Amino acid sequence: MRAETHGLEAPAAWFVRYAGLVAPGERLLDVAAGRGRHSRCFASRGVKVTAVDRDAEALAALEGVLGVSCERRDLEADPWPYAAGSFDAVLVSNYLWRPTFDALLATVRAGGLLLYETFMVGHARYGKPSRPEFLLRVNELLERTLPAFEIIAFEQGDDGTAVKQRIAARRLDRG
Ligand SMILES: C[S@@+](CC[C@H](N)C(=O)[O-])C[C@H]1O[C@@H](n2cnc3c(N)ncnc32)[C@H](O)[C@@H]1O
User: Fold this and answer.
1) With the C-alpha atoms ordered 107, 27, 20, 9, is the resulting torsion angle positive or negative?
2) pTM of this prediction?
3) Relative to the CA of 77, which ligand 1 atom is closest?
4) Which structural domain range is residue 152 located in?
5) What CATH code is carried by the domain that includes residue 50?
6) Can you give the pLDDT at residue 67?
């Protein structure tokens, strides 16, 4: 039986590295959560997770997981559903939809955390995604978060299996 059937794939190292920056009891939004490998990781640390995805079958893997609330939504067909400042942390892994990017960033409260990792230009040599709309441009996560966020860490490049970009950033208190 494959682990992915049950949403038990390992969380990406980037999110594990910064998981301690989200305190137990804080609210985290896992955008396009899939089967919820990151939702589980944060919930197991006492974080209150909202996992949103359009795929009901994927979300079903999270049924009954303590501390995880699932929401089935199409984040591209409908307007961004979350109010500005409504989460202490927002996590995005392997997902990009530029039309709602600013609204997603606004969902992080002042002083709250953004954790983002996804594919960037050059990844096509390894396979999908290969369409430009699903690939970050060079430095794009930096350009989108500055100056509203303080950058904790940023990486980009080819690790021999994927070409990705990653950021951990904290929203500054100023409005
Ligand atoms: C590559 S998977 C990543 C899953 C998870 N974030 C992870 O890293 O394990 C992309 C996810 O985006 C979700 N997705 C794609 N389009 C979506 C949309 N319009 N609204 C909500 N979720 C969407 C898919 O259902 C899928 O679960």
Assistant:
1) negative
2) 0.96
3) 19
4) 3-171
5) 3.40.50.150
6) 98
Q: Which atom of ligand 1 is nearest to the CA of 75?
A: 20
Share of the chain above pLDDT 90, in %: 93
Between CA 44 and CA 36 the distance in angstroms is: 12
Q: Which of 17, 30, 9, 33 is nearest to 154 (CA)?
A: 17
Element (H, E) at 105: helix 101-106
Query: If you take atom 13 of ligand 1, which residue's CA is the nearest one?
Result: 32
CA of 175 to the centre of ligand 1 (A): 30
- Give me the half-sphere count of Cα atoms (radius 13 Å) on the Cβ side of residue 60: 5
Q: Domain total for the chain?
A: 1
Q: φ, ψ for residue 134 (rounded to 5)?
A: -105, 5
**Distance from Cα 43 to the centre of ligand 1, integer Å:** 19
Tell me how far the alpha carbon of residue 70 lies from the centroid of ligand 1, in angstroms.
Answer: 13
Q: Is the peptide bond before 132 cis (omega within 30 degrees of 0)?
A: no
Shortest CA distance to 91 belongs to which of 53, 138, 135?
Answer: 53
Could you tell me which residues come within 8 angstroms of residue 123 by beta carbon, excluding any fewer than 6 positions away? 129, 130, 135, 162, 163, 164
